[in-house]
């Protein structure tokens, strides 16, 4: 059974870079696509970007090119970098597997990691 | 503001049937599958319904999904106290370069 675990600093200063890692266990990262989704406290879900194990990516344009998602197949990990953060980036950050039955538009997210709450504050 | 529209809240008593709606557009719900996620208090979201109306293994058949045109619905029959959670719909949107869109979430209260 695939299990995902997010890790990384939980406190980031404004204007700096948020960095998180998602470690995949119980399965190979080369089996699928992987996505980062965030949830501000008390609010709804917002996708950040997704990556195929080959390295191809697709991002939410509302983040104005601040996000980068990378894959490390040797460590079975994906990572997220979010540059120039502000208080508005304070959120629970989740990684999830995207199950893609032929086309991304038909995908769903399962399972999800437990999440990492990142606070942006000086 | 969420691209998919859900009622912010819903409620029911144990044993009742509750329905949660999810309204989108021709480029989202009207063209692509809808998935539903359940988020129990303090937990990560969990897949509840995929491909409009399919249940993953382990999800009780009390949960069902449907779709018509640009609207989708999640129905929960035989409501139980452990169903109290936030429910989110999601779909791919063909606009621009393509993007994932979510509903704002519906908080279900079991009275």
Architecture overview:
The complex is a heterodimer of chains A (122) and B (111). Chain A has 122 residues and is mostly beta strands. In chain A, 0% of the residues lie in helices and 52% in strands. In chain A, the strands form 2 sheets. In chain A, strands 2, 4, 5, 6, 9, 10 and 11 form a 7-stranded mixed beta sheet that branches. A 4-stranded antiparallel beta sheet of chain A has the order 1-3-8-7, with no helix packed on it. In chain A, β4 (33-39) and β5 (46-52) form a beta hairpin. The model of chain A has no long low-confidence stretch (mean pLDDT 96). Chain B has 111 residues and is mostly beta strands. Helices cover 0% and strands 45% of the residues of chain B. Chain B is built from no helices and 9 strands. Chain B has strands spanning 9-12, 18-23, 34-39, 46-49, 63-68, 71-76, 85-93, 99-102, 106-110. In chain B, a hairpin with a 2-residue loop joins β5 (63-68) and β6 (71-76). Chain B is globular. Classes of the chains: A mainly beta (122), B mainly beta (111).
Question: Any chance you could write out the topology, listing elements then pairs?
Answer:
The complex is a heterodimer of chains A (122) and B (111).
Chain A: E1 3-7, E2 11-12, E3 18-25, E4 33-39, E5 46-52, E6 57-59, E7 67-72, E8 77-82, E9 91-99, E10 108-112, E11 116-120
Parallel strand pairs in A: 2-11
Antiparallel strand pairs in A: 1-3, 3-8, 4-5, 4-9, 5-6, 7-8, 9-10, 9-11
Chain B: E1 9-12, E2 18-23, E3 34-39, E4 46-49, E5 63-68, E6 71-76, E7 85-93, E8 99-102, E9 106-110
């Amino acid at each position: 059974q695939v299990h995902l675990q997010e890790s990384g600093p939980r406190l980031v200063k404004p204007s700096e870079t948020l960095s998180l890692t998602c470690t995949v266990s119980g399965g190979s990262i080369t089996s699928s696509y992987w996505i980062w989704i965030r949830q501000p406290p008390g609010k709804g879900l917002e996708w950040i970007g997704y990556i195929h194990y080959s390295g191809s990516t697709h991002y939410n344009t509302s983040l104005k090119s601040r996000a980068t998602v990378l894959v490390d197949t040797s460590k079975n990990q994906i990572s997220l970098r979010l540059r120039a953060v502000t208080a508005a980036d304070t959120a629970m950050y989740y990684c999830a597997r995207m199950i893609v039955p032929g086309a991304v538009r038909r995908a769903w997210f399962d399972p999800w990691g437990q999440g990492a709450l990142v606070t942006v504050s000086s | 503001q969420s691209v998919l529209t859900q009622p912010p809240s819903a409620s029911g008593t144990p044993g009742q049937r509750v329905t949660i709606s999810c309204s989108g557009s021709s480029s989202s719900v009207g063209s692509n599958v809808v998935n539903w996620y359940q988020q129990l208090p303090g937990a990560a979201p969990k897949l509840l319904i995929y491909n409009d109306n399919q249940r993953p293994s382990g999800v009780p058949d009390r949960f069902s999904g449907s779709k018509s045109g640009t609207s989708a619905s999640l129905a929960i029959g035989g409501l139980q106290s452990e169903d109290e959670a936030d429910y989110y719909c999601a779909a791919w949107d063909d606009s621009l370069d393509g993007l994932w869109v979510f509903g704002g979430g519906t908080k279900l209260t079991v009275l």
